[in-house]
Amino acid sequence: MKLTLPFLSLALFFAVLDSAHSRVLPVESAPYARNSGGIPALVPRSPPSAPDSVLHRRVTRHIRPEYPSVSRRQTVDNGGINTTTNPQPIRGSKGAPFLHDSNTPIDRQNPDSISPPPTDAGNVPNLKWSFSLSHSRLLNGGWVREQTVTDLPSSPGVAAAEQRLSPYAYRELHWHRVAEWGLVLNGTVRITANDEEDRNYVGDAGVGDLWSFPAGIPHTLQAGPEGAEYLLVFDDGNFDAAGTTFMLDDWIAHTPREVLAENFGWNASVFGSIPSPDPYLVPAGQNESWLSLEEARQAVSTNPGGEATPYVYALSQQNRTQAPGGGGWVKVTDYRQFPSSPTLASAYVHVEKGGLRELHWHKNAEWGYIVKGKARATAFAGGATARTFDLQAGDSWVFPTNYGHYLQNVGEEPLEFIEIFRGANFGDRVRFDDFSLTQWLALLPPSVAAKQLNVTEALVRQLKRAKQVIVAG
């Protein structure tokens, strides 16, 4: 409202009628006095405490109206994990507590699912599977539990299994139409195999070591004196499909004995004691012995083709590559280091407490498995969509091709996990590669990156030009 002289005169008139005790102040003494330029003063003039009067109060209400106090400072949600023993679907002012029971232990393991960070958006499919949810197949001599495409539909290219063998027990003689890759989690595994060139191989894999059999290679596994537990990975997510695994006794049981006798040159009666089809595991006998590796190799030394390309790779002996960003190390393996694994590449990653596997992406889908520790990961699927997952030992995940992601150590101990890659097409040879977000920005002209991020060029110039791989916490 614009104050005019008639308006002020009218205000003075009613003020005098309203109170006989009111008094008029000289204009130069009033706290709302104008300055010499005719512009309302922003602060009261002296004296600092103006006399109280009806006129003062009424006129001041027009010139300086009182508004309710409004705080402009807002709490910024930086997307941290909501850590609480009683997780609720609440974040800031959004959500509401449960009014019905929830599976609290699972909620505690997945805080970013029940209370996702504000950066999550859109509909990203489930990319995580816990082997604790897999059905365990209990057998004489151990057990096995799998993760296939029916468990994790987002992983059509890779399936996996955890397998346990009792001391001296065998995984029966078999072969696959897909490649098999293994990592020993505990114990010792003896590998026996032969190839199509009449060559055979016997080798031992200890904790942290790998083995790999290309498609079609017949093989068996035997646990050492302490037993063994290991992770198996296959380059086809539909691993349970018919025509994927072929086992010796299953074939024998479904072949006429007359044919078997002619094939092997044995009496047909011999085949009456063949084990029932598909025992899967063969437990150790009462007097089972464990030959030294030298003795086991000597037993097949007269085979005509000699020794095959090694199917075991001593990853435990490979030198660690310290991450330039500090906070951890990696061991990368593909066909360049391990020729027997042409279709599956891997990286074993160690992240110190508080560290971060930097923001990156790959040309091929990444399948992963937590060996130990706890992690947090966000999958950026493009198109303004993203979803955050919580992972712990025994969990697997998949990031489809080109999905941006990171893995952050959110536990109290070092985090260790495996990254697995297969080619875009079944049977393609694959090598490990990744693209670092930080490096990409650092290699651009600073003005380009600064404009895109709306930051100064000085900040862009601080970015590292080398891949950091792991960033220290």
TrEMBL record:
Keyword Transmembrane helix attributed: no
Database matches in InterPro entries: Bicupin_oxalate_deCO2ase/Oxase (IPR017774), Cupin_1 (IPR006045), GPI/OXD (IPR051610), RmlC-like_jellyroll (IPR014710), RmlC_Cupin_sf (IPR011051)
Positions annotated as active site in the UniProt record: 419 (proton donor)
Domain of life of the organism encoding this protein: Eukaryota
Cupin type-1 domain ranges (all copies): 131-272, 313-461
GO MF terms, alphabetically ordered: metal ion binding
Free-text comment on the cofactor: Binds 2 manganese ions per subunit.
Gene3D superfamilies, per the entry: Jelly Rolls
Binding site for Mn(2+) 1: 174, 176, 180, 219
Pfam families from the UniProt entry: Cupin_1
Cofactor: Mn(2+)
Regions that span the bilayer: none
NCBIfam families, A to Z: bicupin_oxalic
Full protein name: Cupin type-1 domain-containing protein
Organism: Kalmanozyma brasiliensis (strain GHG001) (Yeast)
